[in-house]
Every structure is written in C-alpha cells, then in structure tokens.
Amino acid sequence: MTALLEVEALVGGYGAADEILKGITVALPERRMAAIVGPNGAGKSTLLKAIAGMLRAKSGQVRLSGELLTGLPPRGVAMRGVAFVPQEANIFPSLSVRENLEMGGYLEPRATVTQRVEGLFARFPMLAEKRRRAARTLSGGQRQILAMGMALMVAPKLLLLDEPSAGLSPKAAESLFDDIAAIHAEGTAILMVEQNALEALAIAEDGIVLVDGRVARTGPAAELASDPEVRRLFLGG
Amino acid sequence: MTESSPQPALLEISDLRRSFGGVVALNGLALQVRPGTVTALIGPNGAGKSTAFQCISGVIRPDAGRVIFDGQDITGLRPDRITGAGLVRSFQIARGIPRLTVLENLLLYGQAQPGEGVAAAILRPAAMRAREEALRERARAVAARLNLTRVLDNQAAALSGGQKKLMEIGRALMAEPRLLLLDEPVAGVNPSLSAEIASHIGSLRDEGMTVLIVEHHMDFVASLCDPVIVMAEGRFLVQGSFEQVAADARVQEAYMGRRVHA
Amino acid sequence: MIQDWRDLAQVLLNGVMAGSVLMLPAIGFNCIFAVLRYPNFAIAGFATTGAFAGWVANAVYGWPVGLALPLAFLVAGLVALLAEEAAFRPLRPAGPLTVAIASVAMTLLIENILRFSFGNDLRGYDLPILRDWRFDGIRINPQQLQNTGYAIVAAGGLFLLLGFSRLGRAMRAVADNPVLADIKGVDPNRIARVAVFIGGGLAGCGGMLVGIDTSIDPLTGFRVVLSVFAAAVVGGLGSIPGAALGAMVVGVGEEMAGLVLSPAYRTVTAFLAILLVLMFRPQGILGGRN
Amino acid sequence: QTAPVVFGALPPLTGAGGPYGPAMLRAMQGVVEAANSAGGIKGRQIRLAFEDDQTNPDAGVRGARKLIDVDRVQALMGTWASSVTTAVAPLCWENRVPLFTVSGADSITLLPHQGHIFRTQPNSRLQIETATKWLLGKGARRVFHMAAQSPFAQSSQDVMTEVMRAGGGAVSGYVVYERDKTAFRSEVDTIMRSRSDTVMLNGYLPDVTILLRELYRAGFDGRRFTFAYAAPASVFGTLPNEVTNGLTTFQPSPDLNSPAFTRLKAAFGSTEVDPYSAQVHDHATMAILAAAQGGDATGTVIRDNVRKICQGDGEKVDNVTDGLRLIAAGRAVNFEGASGPCEFDERGDIRGTKFRYEVAEGGAYRVLELV
Amino acid sequence: MDAYLIAMLVFAGFYALMALGLNVIWGLTGMVNLGLVGFFALGAYASALLTTKLFWPMPLGWAAGAVVAAAAGAIMALIVARLRGDYLAIVTLGFAEVIRLTASNEIWLTNGTDGISGIPGPWRGDVSPPEFNLIYLGIVWTAVAVVFVLLARLSHSPFGRVLRAIREDEDVAAVAGKPVLWFKVRAFTIGAAVLGGAGALYAHYNAYIAPDGFAPLLTIYIVLALTAGGVGAMRGAIIGALFVIALLESTRFLSAIIPGVSPVQKAALREGAIALSLILLLRFRPQGLIPEKTRTKATP
Ligand SMILES: Nc1ncnc2c1ncn2[C@@H]1O[C@H](COP(=O)(O)OP(=O)(O)OP(=O)(O)O)[C@@H](O)[C@H]1O
Ligand SMILES: Nc1ncnc2c1ncn2[C@@H]1O[C@H](COP(=O)(O)OP(=O)(O)OP(=O)(O)O)[C@@H](O)[C@H]1O
Ligand SMILES: [Mg+2]
Ligand SMILES: [Mg+2]
C-alpha cells in the first residue's frame, strides 16, 4: 500500500509565528480516511492549509503520490486532485449559491459542472431552493453545506475537510457524515479535522491526535476513540 | 408555554417578524426567557435563530413584533442601548476586531469605563485607572477560563477558528450582562473545553445570570439547558425540558438525527 | 434662465453627453474595484495615457479614430498592468487604502512622465469638428453622440462579460475571497491582471474620448478624475451598470448647475446630487453590499 | 566682483498654469543669455535660478523661500497666478526683493509693497474698459461675458456693464464658470439663448479652447473676442481653422511699426510670442538694465532704478544687449519692451499701454489695429 | 539657508498638525477624510476674517478657527455617519470642493479668488523677518507638541480603543455597548478642530490666503504624509509630515543638477520623483515608517 499523502517533518506557520507546526509527519494511504482531533489552537487547520498550499513551509515536505506539493500555490495543489474545504471564509459571499457551486468546479469541463450542480441540488434541496440567492444571506449551517457542496463539484483524489460539521444541526451533521462516508466509499481519500470527534472517529479508519503543533498519537480510529486517556483529554469524556 | 410561571419573564418576544427580500426568516416568533435559567433555542439550520438574535440585540430592526427585556420595550433600540440595559449577544460567525489584541477585544466589552469620555481619556483620573485595572483583572480571569491566556497579546486575526469562538464568548462575559445571548458558542470548540464552558455557564447561572443559547451540540444542550425552546421556519415550535422536546416527533423529524433519539 | 421645456430637455441632454464622457473611465474604475476592492485613482493617469497614445496615432501618424481607439485601450491597459504589477500588487496585503494612496502617487508619476515627454502644451486630435444637429431647437452633436455610443457599447459588453461568463464569475469570486478562489483553481493574480488591463484600457479609451471632445494635456485625466470617482461611487462601487448610471447622474448633476445655483458652482451641485443619492442609498444606486 | 548676480523666476511649470510657464521661462532665459554674452552686469555674469510654483500659492511660497533664502536672488519675476503673486509678495518686500509679475488681479499693486512690485499686465479695469470700448466701436451692442472664476471676473463684469451702458449697448449675459472642467455645453446654451452679437471669453487657454469648439458646434455666428493669452498662436495647433477663423484677440503691445517690434518678433524666431512671454522678457530685461543703471545688483538698487530706465527721454531700446551697451556708455535709456512701453505708475502698475487687436485667419493671426 | 530651513520646518509643522488631525479621523476611527483641506481652509478663513475684519486678537482668532472647523466636523460626521469607506471619501472630497468654491464665489465675505491679504502675524513688522520665522517656528511646534501629547493620550485610552474598534467593525463596537455615532462625532470633531487650528496658524504665518491654496493637492500631500509615517500611530503622523516636506524640498536641489533637460522636464522630474519615492516607500514599508503598535499588553 503506497501512501497517497506523505507529510514529512513539516514545520511552518504564519509570518513571524513560523513554527506553529513543529515537525509533523503523517501519511495517508490511498482511499483511506483519517480524522485529526486535538485542542483548539493545536495547529490542525494550519496543517491542512499547509497541505493545500496556502502556507509556505519553513522546512519539511508534502508529497502526493510521490510528487512534491511543497511550494505549489493552492491552485497547483487543486489541479493535482486535492479539494479543500477551509474552516472559515469557505464560500464566496456575493456570488449566488449556484455560482458558488460553479466556482467549486472551476477546473472541470462545463458539461460536468452543469451535471454535478444538478446532482447537488437534488442532494441538498436547501441549496436548490436558494440557488439564486447571494451566499452571504445563508445561515451559518447553510453556508457550511454550501462549502461542502463546492468541494463535491470535483472528484478529488484527496479531500481535506476542516470541521465540516461545525454549525450543523444534529440531523444535518448526521447526513453530512453519511455523505462523507459515501464519498469515501467511492474511493476518495479524506483527511478531516473535526471537533465532533466521536462521530468523526466513528467513520474514519485512522485517527491522529494533534497537540501543540506535534502529532501526539496516531492509530486506528476505533482504538483512539476508546482510549480513556484520549477521551479524557480531547474528546470531552 | 402553557404552564404559567410565577416569575415574570426576563425576555419576552412576541410576534417577531423579519424577512429579507422574499425570504421570511422570522414569521411571528414568540418566546419567553425566565430569569435564572439557561434556556436553549434550537432548530434546524436556517430556522431563524441568528436572525432572532440580530433583532433582539438591535443589530437589525424587526419588521414587526415586540421585544420586552425586563419589562422595558427594547424593540428597535440601538445595539449599544440594549447592551447598556444589560443584554449582550455573541456573534455566530466570530467577528473579532482583527487588529486589536485579544486583551483589547475583551476590554472593549467592559462597561462603565469613564475613560471613554474625551476629557477623562486625556486627564486619566484615578477612577478611570481603577476601572481599567478592574477590567484587566476580569479579562485575565475570563481568558484563563477560556484557555486564551497564551494568546492574550495576539491580534484577533491571528487566532485559530475555535479560539475566535472562545474570544466571542469571553467578550460577552466581559460586559457582565443580566441576559447573555450566545449564538453557537461551542461550534468548533474542542469537546473537553466545551464541557468546561458548560460548567462555567452553569455557575454563572447560579450567580444569577440568565442565558439564552443557540447551539446544535445536543450533549451540551442536554447537560446545561432547561428549558429548551425549539423553533422552525421562523416560528416557535415547542418548549420543555430537553427530554420532553427530544421526544417530540416533529422535533425528531425536523431536527434530531438517529443517534440522538436512539 | 429656462424658458420652456426645450431648455430643460437640452440641459438633460447635455448632462447625458457630459456623463457619457465620464462613463468609460468610471466603468474602468469599477472594473478594477470589482475584482481588487481598492479605488484605483491612477485611472486618471491611465486616461491621460490613452489620450496621448491615441493622439500620437491620430495626429502624428494619421490613424483614423477607429484604429487609434483600440491603440489607446492597449497602451493604457498595458500601463495599468505595469503599475499594478510593479507597485500595487505588493501593497495589496497592506489594505485597500494603502493601495489607493499609492495610486494617487501613481497618477502624479504618470502625469509627469507624460509631461516630461510631451510638455504642457494643449494638443488637439486631427479631426474635423462637426456642427450640431438640431431637432426642434434642441441640439445634439454627432461626435458626442458617437462617443456616447462607444461608451454604451463598452459598458454593455463588459456587463455581459462579468455577469455571464466564466471569466466574469471568476473575477467576482476573486473579489470576494482571493484565497478561496485560489483553492478552487483560479489564479487570482491572472484574474487581477485581466481586470486591471480591461479597467486601464477602458480608462484609456475614455481619456481619448475626452481628448476628442476637448483637447489633451498631462492634466486631462486629473481634471475628470473627481467626477469619475463620483460617478463610480454614486452608481455603486464595483458595479458596471452602476458606473454607467452614476456617470449620467454626475453629468446631469453638473449640467444642472446653471439651473440650481450658478455655473460657478458646477462641482457643488454635482456633489449635492451625490450626497442626496447616498443619503437614500449609502451603497450607491446599484451597489450590492456595503 | 566675480560671483554671478542671481535672479529668480517662479513660473508655473505644472498645474493649471502649465501651458504658459515653460514659454515664459524660455523667454527669461533668452534675455539672460543675451545679457551674459553682452558682458553681464558690469562684468558680473547673471544666473537665472528658477522654481516651479505648481500654480499653487503654498508651493509658490516654498519655492520663493528657496529662491530668496538659498539662492539669494536679487529680483523675482514671472509669477503668473494672482494667488501665487499675492502670497509671495510679502516675502519679497520683507527681503527687499523686487517682484515682477504678469498677474492680473487689481488688488496686487494695492498691497503695501513699498515699491517692490512691478506689474506688466495692465490692470484688469484698464484692459476691459479698453476692450469694451473697442467692441462698441465695432458695432457690438449685446456682449455676453463668459468669465472663468478668477480674481477679476467680477470687476471685469462691473466695468463692462458700465461701459456698455454708457455706449448704448448692454451686457447680454454674464456667466462665471469653473475653469478646470471639460464640458461647457449648458454654458454655451446660455450664450446661444441670449442672442448676443459678441461673446467675450474671459478665461484661459484650456477652457477657452473648449468653449471655442463648443461655440462652433452650436453654430454661434457672432463675434468671438478674447485675451491674446487665452488664445495664443498655439490654439491653431489644437483647433482646426474653421473653428478659429474670425476669433479676435487683444493684448498690450509696443508700437507696431517701430523697428523694435519687428526686431523682437524676429528675435523670437518662428515661435509666436504669447503675451506672457513678451511680458517676462521685459521683466528680465528691466531687472538687468536697472541693476546696470544703478551700478549694483541689489534688490533695492533694482527697485529704485526700474523707472529710470523705462521712462523719460532716454534713448529708446528694445533689448538687453543694446540697453547694456548704452548704459555702459553712460547714456540714458528708455526701454520699450515686447509687451509695450513698460512705464509704471507709483503703485507699480503699467500705464500708457497700447493694445493690439488681431484676428485669426487660416491658422494665423493678422493684426487689425493698434490703439 | 538657515532662514529657508526654518521656514520649511514651520511648513512641516503645519503639515504635521494636519496629519495629526487626519489621524484621529482616519487612522484611529477609520473614517476616510479626503476633505481635510476643507477644514483647514475653514479654520484659516475664520481666523483671517475675524482678525482682519473684526480685529479680534490673534489667539482668539486661532481658537475660533479651531471651533468653526470643529463645528463643521461635527455636522459632517452626523450627515455621513452611515457612509463607509470610499463612499465617505467622495463626500468629504466634495465638502472640500464646496468650501473652496464658496470661498471663490462669495466675494462679499471672502474676497473671492483675490484672497485675503495682510493677515496679521504675531510681532510681524516689529521684528525682523528671520526673527518672525523663529517665533512662528516656536508657536507651531509648540502646538504640534501639545496636540501630539493630547492625541497620543487619547489614542492610548479606552476612548481610543473604542475608536479603533469602530474602525474595524461598527456592529461589534455597538454590541459592545458603545454609542458608535457619538464616538464618530467626537472623533471627527476633534480631528477637524486640529485641522482648523492648523489652518488658522497657517493663515497668520503666510499673511495671505486664497481659495487656490486649498486645492486637493494639499490633501494628497497630507494623506501621503500620514500613510508614509504610518496610519494610526501619532508619531507616524509627525514623522510623515517631516518626510513629505523633506521630499518636496530636497527634490528641488536634485532636479537642479540634472543636465540636459528643459525646465518643464525638470519640474516633471521633480514631481515624478516625489511620487516615485512615495510609491517606493509604500512598496517597501507598507505599514509606514512607524507602524501602529498596541500598547495594551497583558503582561506589562
Ligand atoms: N441578510 C439576509 N438576506 C437574505 N436572507 C437572509 C439574510 N439573513 C438570513 N437570511 C435567511 O433567513 C433564514 C434564517 O437565517 P438565520 O441565520 O437566522 O438561521 P439560523 O437559524 O441561525 O441557522 P443556523 O443554525 O444555520 O445558523 C435563512 O434561510 C437565511 O438564508
Ligand atoms: N493568521 C495567523 N497568524 C498568526 N498565528 C495564527 C494565525 N492563525 C492561527 N494562528 C495561531 O496558530 C495556532 C494554530 O492555529 P490553527 O488554526 O491551526 O488551530 P486549530 O488546531 O485549527 O484550532 P481550532 O480547533 O480552534 O480551529 C494558534 O495558536 C493560533 O493562534
Ligand atoms: Mg481550526
Ligand atoms: Mg445561525
């Protein structure tokens, strides 16, 4: 089993604070799903941003199927089959819902885009209902769904999700996790950050615990979810 | 809402309406928050919860309806007046003041600072300095509770998503309100920390503060909130203890997932 | 002053003519604003650049206006691109106001480069000046009418481009959230360059039309920049049809000066009109967000 | 004495006066070069230091400060905008530096300048009065006054009304417009409605160019009259002949048939002399001759000697070379310059000026008459 | 040379005052004010008219200049409170043009484009011109120092904190319990008062004011000064003003030594060099020479 994504001794951060990630090594095999959990400010989002090309790494490497991603701009990473849903600012507020989805498929051929948009409208009736509305008028949870929808406009090799369920109603969150599981089942590798940790570990195969810019634990998701130490410290009980 | 409570409501909303160019966000919402409770307001995404907060806190005007706070009609008042009256809300999508530090963001919400007058700002009387010191003291305590001590001197723009949410709660606490409105305070907050926050809010209630919380985390709601008000499509749906509403078929259908009522 | 309805109609018509001259630079301004979210006052410099480029082609090399106009577009667009890449792009992270200030300095720089090369003398295009047409006592100048036509065509074209094409969508996406656009596969810098090129080019065409209507010198753009900015703001920053409409409001507002106050208070009347509009619509007539 | 004498020029090289300043500076430099090749002032070479006033009083004052305090100029010349002149005037008299100006505002020579100001531009009252009378003489009865916002718009209007009424005519309309605009259609409509036989364009080159074009488009068939500085020969490069044909201009002028005038025209070469350049040519010449006459190139000496070389019974000269030669020979001179006879009254205003009227025909000016 | 340097320092003082005034309105509160020259002009005219026509003593005239501008600032703030960013820019720009055109056209009051000359200066005429310059240098820079200290205190106070919060997000400031409009009005008034006071001082130094002197170019210079110095930092305003004057003046000497170009080209080179330096400065120090820093530290 060759790793799809390999992160090696990655060090990076923002401007002067350039060591938020203090040497992270993670590997994600093809078609696998891993959940990253950890306290607020641990560097989970920073890690995803670094993989997605939004941050310049100070040292270390990121590879996708052996190809070096480090140094590529976000669009370069996207073109190689990585889709990313950021935690914040993950929609285009003044574009309509439909245009947001179309932007999600910017790199796809026109026909595919039309087809997938219709597919998403069928899957998320709320989006269909609001297709002409500016995305800025969506409620918090609706935005989250739209952001997810945009990522589904492409058929990525690797999907990076930063707290996809934040702000969703239990019912919506549940169906979102179902969706994620389904996407995964179709063969997409997923790296997901979640504070809804138990749910996330329930559908993921691997778990990664990130604390203060370092990988504190890795292992099969089920094992981590049942580890009392991990539960106490990071999973709230 | 059938059982008439002996205490008068601290917050009473009646027939609140607001639409945005054809989208009806609030469609005659009515609800009451009794003093000394931690009341939850839950409902599907897009039910109008945040819009209700916007209207209550004066950030936007309702098209119709009344908001009575502590016997006083505050409908359509300016936000600062409403805050002054003792009602403070937090924002769902954390709106830091990016170029102020976390500490300054917290201090900003301090009330009754004489140093906000021009003369006092220049002359710096003892009253101002004392108040500032007191506010700092409080800010440090709040930050400590919310795990923000380490980032107090960071600009708000340089916070993680969860830290911004925490700061959002912290700011509202700084205002020492009588009624605190929290819009999804623990979305994106680490479960261990949100349990701590829940217990903190519980102790605030015990000290006499009233809290109205919008939240989608059912564990959090179940452990902390009573009563729970459910709204849907801009309207009041049902109210009761968590167990009561969770058992309601309409609520299950519209809101809860399998896991919650399983 | 006003004797009958014809005089009023004439003033309105004059306003439309004056407005149409402001239209292209205002659209150019809003085109850049729509994507990059900063007010680019260097539009004045680009307009002057276009005016001079067109003049050189027309008066020195004898090109007809139909050929000189595209050249004005090209040269001004390239200058705008150069200014963006060399000066403004590195400043964008520092915030829109910093870029706006730099763009004022850029206008001064361009003005003086032109002054260095061409001197201060007024120059006129090599064009016959046509007499007005008269309809029932109302006069219209065919040349100005033609300029209005050019402006409306450009405005319409750009509106369609931005509203309905993939490029237009990408432009608005970059305006909203350049980082996210990048994540979705758009090169924000390329989009920015396209916007700046189109915006600068339109300003250049506008400058050339001003030149055809009047005459040119290094201050040509500077003279109209206030009105152009006003038009863009009144119409709604970032809105292409807004810029066209705003240009009309400002044009008519200025021509109305004679009726309301005195021609000496032209600018004042225009600003009163602007204030009035903004009192009722703080985000401009067609501006979406604030 | 070997250190050069320094004179200062403060013309507008940028800003609204930009179309005029460069030619003005060239005219002054020409004079200085000629004087230097004629041996300078008592053997001292002359240096012309200049600063751009940016057509802005604030920048003008800073420029004047530099010229006076750093270059230590002994005379300042070539200020154009009235606001700049008024702003730098106090600096000049406080530092005893005479100031030669082309600014038109009547108030300038009313300042307490203790003889330091010399203005070659006839004051606006005189100019308008003369011009209006001339127009009356040519049969004008309804004259429209189209004035750029300037220090003399209102006083011009008062004078015109008075003179027209006395002559049996009327000012048929008066519009003050903003100068730095690019369209004046509604203003021109007002002119058209007024059924005037003449329009007086009391503005500057950029705006008058636009007005002429607009008047042509509107089909105005009356007389178009303006100051020569508002439509110098360079308009022919900007506007087609069919637009300019018939435009009448006027300006202060020396005697036409005097050899001096013809020589001056030749000296300026192919470039037509605009009125401001003619005036600053005279500024430089007067400053140099006055210094030579007084035997010392200080501000006070220059101030005190200007009138000596300009009026009286001396030998007529029209250029600096001849003037220096005659003064060196101990002869009295009476300088008559390119802009006119250059005689100043006690306030520093020019007097006894004649005016030259010209009409545009086929891309050139033809002299109509000199009065 | 000394006299010249002193005069330029006096000018720098005016610019510094203006930049300080602008900094309260724009730097701290985030209200774009491209009409600052209008407030400057109001102060100048008020003081000039009161001292020349009604013979008020000069210090009263200065105070009146500040008060008149402050009043205009307060009214302005009330009118434009709803407008943001660039929309505010155009209205304030328009305000300055209105002031300039009114001064040009209302001849009965302002003497029109002729301007007002013979404005008295402290001990002018009693002392030699160089002494007068020195006296004024003292007055202006004392004013700068006083205003600086006051504004710096203001900016590092809870009041300043609220202003900065309003700059970033009005809604949040309002929810924090701050009456946003009232803060904006006060900030605008204070800034306008400083601008007006600067105008009054300027009028009595120059002895002459005219509408031409209050053209947008001056606004551009001051905005550039503030940006160059660092928006938000009071020290930045002063450093920026000195920088701009130094730039304006030093380019004279540089352009003079370039051979082989005509005077217009020299003038063009000079203005071009000024513009270019500012662009380069911003390019390499986008936050200005003195970036805004926070003084409220959790750990002192
Ligand atoms: N400014 C606006 N313009 C148009 N529609 C709006 C606007 N704000 C909210 N809405 C709409 O009103 C409805 C209620 O939105 P609101 O934000 O109150 O929902 P919510 O209950 O807070 O949902 P969530 O749990 O997802 O945050 C939604 O359908 C939303 O799209
Ligand atoms: N733009 C930034 N500049 C500087 N520091 C930042 C910036 N963004 C985040 N940080 C800091 O980096 C650290 C890690 O942030 P990150 O967003 O990766 O956390 P996280 O693990 O995603 O947390 P959360 O669960 O709260 O979203 C935090 O301490 C945060 O304060
Ligand atoms: Mg995160
Ligand atoms: Mg919400």
From TrEMBL, chain A:
The keyword Transport applies. PROSITE patterns: ABC_TRANSPORTER_2. Transmembrane segments: none annotated. Keywords: Amino-acid transport, ATP-binding, Nucleotide-binding, Transport. One of its GO terms (molecular function) is ATP binding. It holds the Pfam family ABC_tran. The keyword Transport applies. SMART domains: AAA (SM00382). Residues 5-237 form the ABC transporter domain. PANTHER family: HIGH-AFFINITY BRANCHED-CHAIN AMINO ACID TRANSPORT ATP-BINDING PROTEIN LIVF (PTHR43820:SF4). Belongs to the ABC transporter superfamily. This is ABC transporter ATP-binding protein. It comes from Falsiroseomonas tokyonensis. The lineage of its organism: Bacteria, Pseudomonadati, Pseudomonadota, Alphaproteobacteria, Acetobacterales.
Automatic annotation (TrEMBL), chain B:
It comes from the Bacteria. This is ABC transporter ATP-binding protein. InterPro entries: AAA+_ATPase (IPR003593), ABC_AA/LPS_Transport (IPR051120), ABC_transporter-like_ATP-bd (IPR003439), ABC_transporter-like_CS (IPR017871). Residues 11-258 form the ABC transporter domain. It comes from Falsiroseomonas tokyonensis. The keyword Ubl conjugation does not apply. One of its GO terms (molecular function) is ATP binding. Keywords: ATP-binding, Nucleotide-binding, Transport. PANTHER family: CONSERVED COMPONENT OF ABC TRANSPORTER FOR NATURAL AMINO ACIDS, CONSERVED COMPONENT OF ABC TRANSPORTER FOR NATURAL AMINO ACIDS-RELATED.
From TrEMBL, chain C:
It is a multi-pass membrane protein. Belongs to the binding-protein-dependent transport system permease family. LivHM subfamily. Keywords: Amino-acid transport, Cell membrane, Membrane, Transmembrane, Transmembrane helix, Transport. PANTHER family: BRANCHED-CHAIN AMINO ACID TRANSPORT PERMEASE PROTEIN LIVH-RELATED (PTHR11795:SF449), BRANCHED-CHAIN AMINO ACID TRANSPORT SYSTEM PERMEASE PROTEIN LIVH (PTHR11795). This is Branched-chain amino acid ABC transporter permease. Pfam families: BPD_transp_2. It is found in: Cell membrane.
From TrEMBL, chain E:
CDD domains: TM_PBP1_LivM_like. Keywords: Cell membrane, Membrane, Transmembrane, Transmembrane helix. It holds the Pfam family BPD_transp_2. It is a multi-pass membrane protein. Coiled coil: none annotated. It comes from the Bacteria. The chain crosses the membrane at residues 6-26, 33-56, 62-80, 134-154, 187-205, 217-248. InterPro entries: ABC_transp_permease, LivM-like. It is found in: Cell membrane. This is Branched-chain amino acid ABC transporter permease. It comes from Falsiroseomonas tokyonensis.
